[in-house]
Amino acid sequence: MSKVELRQAQPEDLEEFWELAFSDPNAGWTKLNGPYFHDDLPSKEKFINELAPKVWLGNKDHLLITSDGKIVGSVGGGFEDGKLAKWYDMGITIYATDTWDKHIGSQALKLFITYLFKLYDLPHLGLTTWSGNPRMMHVAEKIGMKQEARIRKVRFYEGKYYDSVKYGILRDEWE
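Structure (tokenized):
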């Protein structure tokens, strides 16, 4: 199994990260990571000059995933309740399809949960996905997260309705 690690993005990572994550608007991950929002991928210039400094550089809530030292994905999250800062929801993306089904996502998500419980004094961490992403649902369940909510038929994609699915883990369950 490959060595999976999380780390903050560095300025020298930005071109490689953009190429991996955002250069192909038809990349496989874009069909799984909230495609119903119809978000446009940033241009290289916008990513490097605007998005990366705001979201990626120096941000303890958005980290790169590396496998054997190579960037393969990212983890990130934030507070659902804004300034109250008591309800944290996270996500994970593995970008290149040739790195899927190699247990990188489950390893990275475990590392991120451990990291977040050290970073924040919270009793609960959450993850939201949708029924159109069975791999993500499997990873969440595989690492011990519990399905806490299923909001039926609220995600519309390619002419079909899907469920929004929320998972969670409590600190005492994780420890």
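The chain is about 30% helix and 35% strand. The first strand starts at residue 4 and ends at 7.
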